[in-house]
Amino acid sequence: MIKLNRVSKKFGTGVFGLSNVSFNVDKGEFVFLVGPSGSGKTTIFKLLTREILPTEGTIIINDWDIVRLSKAKIPHLRKKVGVIFQDLKILMDRTIFENVMLPLEVAGIEPEESKKRVNDVLAQVGLSGHKEKFPIQLAGGELQRAAIARALVLSPDIILADEATGNLDTANSWDIIKILTDINEKGTTIIMATHNLDIVKNLPKRIIEMNKGNIVKDSKISKEKKDSLHHSHNSKSHDIHDQKSSTMEGEQK
Amino acid sequence: MKFIKTTWKNIRRSPYQAVAAIMIMSLTFLTISFFTILLFGSSKIINFFESKPQATAFFKNEAKQSDMDGLKSSLESSGKIASAKFVSKQEALKIYREQNKNDPLLLDLVTADILPSSLEISTVKIDDLVGVSETLKASPIVQEVIFQKDVVATLTSWTNALRTIGVVLIIVLSLVSIFIMVTIIGIKISQKKEDIEIMKLIGATSWHIRWPFIYEGIFYGIFGAIIGWIISSAVLLYSTPFLSSFLKGIPIFPVPLIFFVGLLGLEILLAVILGAVSSFMAVLRYLK
């Protein structure tokens, strides 16, 4: 579903945001992207939404080559990839309902259908009672839910959550994670960048650890290696066992 | 409909900029209206004079009827005259009374004695007019010969000058309007920079973002055109009694309704073009 192959991003200042990064994410996977600030997590999100272009490498989402995607097709890509931004990017002069309605307006969905979808998604994130409120009237956790609702409303294939639990207390953070895991269980691929190691450690999900623009650890690959090592160890054991058996059989004969 | 709602919201949120844009557009369309009315009027006046006889010879007061008839006959016998119509003092008074029927004071002051008899002449060939007029001027009973072509030429030159001034003024004002509109819409785009960025990130196409601004420009243009048209039409209707008395005998007034409707239609069309061009320039400049 998502494939980054030898992707590097060098910024104008000469600093590498990403250096030769490769990984695949399958459909329906939930991936945590962890690492310190400046490790390249947000750069990956910006590359996946074509906010920026890589200096080298290829990025494939579904069948789209993101690097070669024409400008006219970028809006189509962005309708398929819902983003929960680190700074939320909620419009302060619109109500929560209007904010969540925005992607549907942009996609040209009929008003009646749009209203139904917004009400459904607001109920899903527990904000039905706040839909006529303005962002300034909501608490941090509620705003975070509004941002999730907006990312969800077009039923995207992929959700990119950039620090979706940043600045939230533990209870609110777990509420957000609960919403995201529920969405994931319905088949949506989720990549979540986070600093919250408590959440990462307590959820059995794939973890990609980054540092200074490089992937330093990918739990999926580690597990595959471990499995393959285990498999080859078992095979060797079987071979030895087989050899031993045949030797013993020969001796008996 | 969705874009129009967004446009209306944008206008309501920055009323001072909207007022500035509408005012400059009103000024432009007020000027356009005034010059259109002036040119319409002057072309009517020219048509009126063009339809008149080519020359009119006014007789001296002491001229005898037999001499005047003799002059008319001699001109007609030359074969150069297409038509020659004698207007007696009584007929001149009748014409005067008809022209001033609404002004009893003027009717009381004038009698047939003070109005001259005249001979209205049109020649078969325009070239013959000079020779005929020389014959008329040479006659001892003729006081004065007036050529309509001189009047028409003077009016035409005035109209042309007016048209040139009007066109230059309209071009300058249209350019000023465009630049002011570009600036106002540019400011609005800058104010909504964050909203635009968010819209783009959630998949809005460039045109989805541009349309409300273009509609806004068109709205300012149309609103300005309607205000300019209302003011100019009101001024024209208000001054109609004075102007019709001033231009007595020239059939301009009342100005037909179709002229006002046509003027409004033309101005709205021009307003749409001006508004769309200026807002499109703004979005190209500020929404890269």
Query: What is the rounded distance between the termini of chain A?
Result: 57 Å
State the secondary-structure class of chain B: alpha+beta
Distance between the termini of chain B: 25 Å
Biggest sheet strand order of chain B reads 2-3-1-4
Helix content of chain B: over 70%
Number of strands of chain A: 10
| Percent strand of chain B | 5-15%
User: Might you state the CATH topology name of chain A?
Assistant: Rossmann fold
Helix fraction of chain A?
40-55%
CATH superfamily of chain A: P-loop containing nucleotide triphosphate hydrolases
Enumerate how many helices of chain A there are, as a single number.
Answer: 8
- Low-pLDDT parts of chain B are none
Main β-sheet, spatial strand arrangement of chain A? 6-7-8-3-9-10
Q: Strand-and-helix sequence of chain B, N→C?
A: HHEHEHHEHEHHHH
Mean pLDDT of chain A: 86
Structural domain tally of chain B: 2
Main features:
heterodimer, A: 253 residues, alpha/beta, Rossmann fold, six-stranded mixed β-sheet, four-stranded antiparallel β-sheet, 8 helices, 10 strands, 23% strand, B: 288 residues, alpha+beta, Alpha-Beta Plaits, 2 domains, 10 helices, 8% strand
Can you tell me about this structure?
The complex is a heterodimer of chains A (253) and B (288). Chain A is α/β, with parallel strands linked by helices. Chain A has one domain: Rossmann fold. In chain A, 43% of the residues lie in helices and 23% in strands. In chain A, strands 6-7-8-3-9-10 form a 6-stranded mixed β-sheet, with helices on both faces. In chain A, strands 2-1-4-5 form a 4-stranded antiparallel β-sheet, covered by helices on one side. In chain A, strand 7, helix 6 and strand 8 (189-194) form a beta-alpha-beta unit. The termini of chain A are far apart. The model of chain A is unreliable at 239-253 (pLDDT under 50). With 288 residues, chain B is of the alpha+beta class. Chain B folds into 2 domains: 2-49 and 152-286, no CATH class; 61-140, Alpha-Beta Plaits (2-Layer Sandwich). Chain B contains 10 helices and 4 strands; from the N terminus they run H-H-E-H-E-H-H-E-H-E-H-H-H-H. Chain B has helices spanning 2-13, 15-50, 65-77, 89-99, 104-109, 128-138, 148-191, 193-201, 206-246, 257-286, and strands spanning 55-59, 81-87, 118-123, 142-147. In chain B, strands 2-3-1-4 form a 4-stranded antiparallel β-sheet. The radius of gyration of chain B is 29 Å and the shape is elongated. The two termini of chain B are 25 Å apart. In chain B, 25% of the residues are buried. The mean pLDDT of chain B is 86.
